[in-house]
Design brief:
- Chain A: It holds the Pfam family GerA.
- The complex is a heterodimer of chains A (522) and B (366).
- Chain A is α+β, with helices and mostly antiparallel strands and 522 residues long.
- Chain A has 3 domains: 118 residues, no CATH class; 175 residues, no CATH class; 167 residues, no CATH class.
- Chain A has 16 helices and 12 strands.
- In chain A, helix 12 crosses helix 14.
- Chain B has one domain: Amino acid/polyamine transporter I, CATH 1.20.1740.
- Classes of the chains: A alpha+beta (522), B mainly alpha (366).
Chain lengths: 522, 366
């Protein structure tokens, strides 16, 4: 447990309340604080022949099997023939011989006792001692490791993070078996006391950056952290941008890959979405699958994704600009057919596009919220009523329906939902610019976005790296992905550009995804 | 503390700045079919100016921008006066580009939109590009330059592929001797576009590299863009012949003649955007120069300076009654009489003073 959170908690309560040597006083205080809820168990028992003791825990968040064996071991102790040896130091005796759990620690104040109980520990108090022992018996119902629901791949590991921070760290440790893998635990949130873990590779990640992140996390002053989104907004502070500056992922392999490139990860207890930072713009177009498939198809898919981003951001506005201002750009036959379609449409192209885009956004939101059973009803209404009959009724042109649908599909190609939403928001602004200034307006808009992106930084890394500032060595993994054997060095974006392959260390090239042996045979 | 810029970013801005609005015009029209040779000669003169004057000043004082150097060597009153003149010169150059940009947008893209609205959008875009600081703008240039160069290359290939060029328009070279070439080259092409690099006296000190590296990259990028401009002029003459001087934007006319595979037929709006990207960067660079100057002279905050310069530029862009008057005034008066003052005369005088004082100081030390 970090020092800072402890002190943060203490400053919340007025004064640290010391444990009393009298067991009954302590129990009374605890019942006063916790209330006598049915899940709070205060088990009194006699240990070491004649000592009164109390075991306090919350049954719902504890592992009952562990607690049973703990109680058994404590009671058995008093039956052992040499139980009297620790008459003088009963506390020491308990800790050394008779607690059948892994993690134990001593507590001096009632506040700490209270917090330990709330975290799921069992607290053992002995009559006559102003010190308590917390035994780590935490355990609760949790979801097993399942396939990630938001980031699926055709080839690659199928396991995803879960809500439990322990499971998540285990998944990462299972991927990177290196002593350099570091995990810094923090407790954030005065009331929720959420475990937040900063994970990084020592020697690869920039130490200054890690210190900075750690400091920013310590500065968070809030009473609740319920999801990694809270942390994301707190540590970014006052940065106004539609673009995501922190990546989130459900995939342990993506996190492992990021750590090995010098990124750090933040795991928040209670959510399967792990944060990865610092990131650059191009990172959002990389899927972990790119590295498992052959490099030629991976490069091709990456180009498809980037063009999809452009389509999703610009296609409706280009359509508006060209049909409103620059009709001469269209081939004659297309122009005639478009004009014929638009003949009966009562609105200008901008209004028409706005209506259809908003309709789609509503449908999309409805699709997320509605119960699965009535999904087919919505799709019928959406596709038939809104699509086909709106065209037949002459409210919108068929071409506009095509434009909007293609845009919608393209927006799902981008691997990161965050980046997709950025494109969605920008799309509307672009449509207004296109409706009032045509292609020129779009260009002006793109210019401003470029200026904005050039000024963005994610934890000190310029957002458009490696394109601007240009880092030629990193271009191997931007628009295309070169084969693994050609990526001799780590990207120099986030940390030290150490050799990834062919270095003197025997195992340096053997970590994580860059498996030296498999590579040779592939 | 200002953020530093890399050599690559500096080079990118030099290239995009020099290319800027030059492909809009057929430079050195008077030289007829040898116009491109005149541009080449102009480029060589400009190179001498860049290396012998502009970079020479920088090499004496690598940690100062133009205004600081003038203050140091000319004394406060003269330096201040000249600095104010330069701020207006930068603003005026920016104004000319805004006006060009606005008028051409109306001619080629938005015939019914009011000029004031188009120019307002231009000024707004330019202002937003530099409000984040010089480093952000330089990064923008670095990002854009590969795209711009790539599209130009594609465009020229398309033109060549569809058989638009006719060698008869350019040979024989030196048909009328060297005199018309020299006359057309000096001072017009030196002053526009090559001498315009005087603006970079405001930017050299932003780099983090040593002066030799800066000199090298500046000369290299200058040569690249000089050759590029020469090539553009050559292609315009080769494509249009005697018609070239008669149209507003020859390159655009040429591009609209491209017909390939029945798909790429009317790509001129796209070409217009390409040309405008260059103009945009050019006018923003001048805007930035003016902002740095205003900040230095008045100690205002960056944002205020951006607002003030933006106001001057937007207001000033209504100075001309029409595009024709604007072009006529520019090429007949400014390029011949006014700009050389700022681009050639003042810098040469300055470099002589700087060199003289430094030499004397060197002797006293020895």
């Amino acid at each position: 447990m970090s020092e800072s959170t402890k002190s943060g908690i203490e400053s919340g309560s007025d004064a640290v309340k010391a444990l009393s040597a009298d067991l009954d006083t302590n129990i009374k205080w605890l019942t006063g604080e916790l209330g006598s809820e049915p899940d709070i168990v205060i088990r009194q028992l006699q240990v070491l022949r004649n000592k009164r003791a109390a075991l306090v825990y919350i049954s719902d968040i504890s592992d009952n099997g562990l607690i049973n064996s703990l109680v058994t071991s404590m009671l058995d102790e008093s039956l052992k023939p040499d139980a009297g040896e620790f008459e003088e130091e009963p506390l020491q005796g308990l800790m050394l011989r008779s607690l059948s759990v892994g993690g134990i620690r001593k507590l001096d104040s009632l506040d700490h006792v209270l917090l330990a109980i709330l975290e799921g520990c069992s607290v053992i108090m002995l009559d006559g001692f102003a010190t308590a022992i917390a035994a780590d018996t935490g355990g609760r119902e949790k979801r097993g490791v399942e396939e990630p629901s938001s980031q699926t791949v055709v080839r690659g590991p199928k396991e995803g993070f879960t809500e439990s921070v322990r499971t998540n760290t285990a998944l990462i440790r299972a991927k990177i078996k290196s002593a350099d893998l570091r995990m810094e635990y923090k407790l954030i949130g005065k009331r929720t006391r959420t475990t937040v873990v900063v994970v990084y590779m020592k020697g690869i990640a920039d130490e200054q950056m890690i210190r900075d992140v750690s400091r920013r996390l310590d500065l968070i002053d809030t009473d609740s952290i319920l999801e990694s989104g809270y942390i994301e907004e707190f540590i970014l502070g006052k940065t106004f941008t539609p673009f995501p500056l922190i990546q989130n992922t459900e995939r342990p392999d993506a996190v492992a890959a990021g750590l090995l490139e010098g990124q750090f990860a933040i795991i928040v207890d209670g959510t399967p979405f792990v944060l990865l930072a610092p990131v650059t713009f191009v990172k959002f177009f990389q899927s972990s699958e790119d590295y498992y498939q052959r490099y030629d198809i991976a490069s091709f898919l990456r180009l498809i994704r980037m063009s999809s981003f452009l389509v999703s951001m610009l296609f409706p506005s280009l359509y508006i600009a060209i049909t409103t201002f620059h009709q001469e750009m269209l081939p004659t036959s297309l122009l005639i057919s478009l004009a014929a379609q638009r003949e009966g449409v009562p609105f200008p192209a901008l209004i028409e596009a706005m209506i259809m885009e908003l309709t789609f956004e509503i449908l999309r939101e409805a699709g997320v919220r509605m119960p699965r059973i009535i999904g087919s009803a919505i799709s019928i209404v959406g596709a038939l009523v809104l699509g086909q009959s709106a065209v037949q009724a002459g409210l919108v042109s068929a071409a506009m329906v095509i434009v909007v649908s293609f845009t919608a599909i393209a927006s799902f190609v981008i691997p990161s939902v965050n980046m997709g939403s950025a494109a969605r928001l920008i799309r509307f602004g672009m449509m207004f610019l296109a409706g009032s200034f045509g292609l020129f307006g779009i260009m002006a808009g793109l210019m401003v976005i470029l200026a904005h992106m050039s000024g963005l930084r994610s934890f000190g890394v310029p957002y458009l790296t490696p394109l601007s500032p240009l880092v030629p060595g990193n271009l191997k993994d931007v628009f295309i992905r070169v084969p693994w054997w050609a990526m001799k060095k780590r990207p120099a974006l986030f940390g030290k550009a150490t050799a990834r392959q062919g270095s003197a260390e025997p195992n340096a090239g053997n970590q994580g995804k860059s498996n030296g042996e498999g590579k040779g045979r592939r | 503390m200002m953020e530093r810029i890399s050599l690559n970013q500096l080079g990118s801005l030099i290239v995009i700045f020099l290319i800027g609005s030059s492909p809009l015009f057929l430079l050195a029209i008077e030289a007829g079919k040898d116009a491109w040779l005149a541009v080449f000669v102009g480029m060589l003169c400009g190179l001498a100016l860049l290396w012998g004057v502009n970079l020479a000043i920088y090499r004496y004082e690598p940690d100062m921008h133009l205004f600081e150097i003038m203050m140091k060597y000319l004394g406060k009153p003269a330096g201040y006066l000249l600095s104010v003149c330069y701020v207006f010169y930068f603003c005026y150059k920016s104004i000319r580009n805004v006006r060009e940009f606005g008028d051409l947008s109306i001619i080629y893209l938005l015939p019914t939109t009011p000029l004031s609205a188009v120019m307002a959008l231009i000024c707004l875009t330019a202002g937003l590009s530099i409000v984040g600081g010089a480093a952000v703008f330089f990064r923008m240039a670095e990002f854009t330059i590969p795209v711009v160069i790539g599209i130009y290359a594609l465009l020229f290939l398309l033109m060549a592929g569809t058989g638009l060029f006719n060698l008869d328009y350019i040979i024989p070279v030196f048909d009328e001797g060297l005199k018309p070439i020299w006359d057309a080259a000096f001072p017009e092409t030196v002053s526009f576009p090559f001498g315009e690099l005087v603006l970079f006296l405001m930017f050299w000190k932003l780099t983090d590299a040593d002066r030799n590296a800066v000199t090298a990259i500046a000369v290299k990028c200058y040569l690249f863009s000089g050759l590029f401009i020469t090539l553009t002029n050559l292609l315009i003459v080769a494509g249009m012949g005697k018609l070239a001087p008669a149209v507003t934007v020859p390159l655009m006319q040429l591009a609209s003649s491209i017909e390939a595979a029945r798909v790429l037929e009317r790509i001129d709006p796209l070409v217009a955007l390409l040309l405008f990207t260059g103009v945009m960067f050019k006018l923003t660079s001048y805007y930035l120069g003016a902002v740095i100057g205003i900040r230095y002279l008045t100690k205002l905050s960056h944002k205020t300076a951006v607002l003030i310069a933006g106001g001057i530029i937007y207001g000033g862009s209504f100075l001309f009654r029409s595009y024709m008057e604007h072009i006529w005034f520019g090429f007949v008066y400014n390029v011949k009489y006014h700009f050389p003052l700022f681009q050639i005369v003042f810098p040469i005088v300055l470099v002589m003073i700087v060199a003289f004082k430094n030499r004397r100081a060197g002797k006293e030390d020895a």
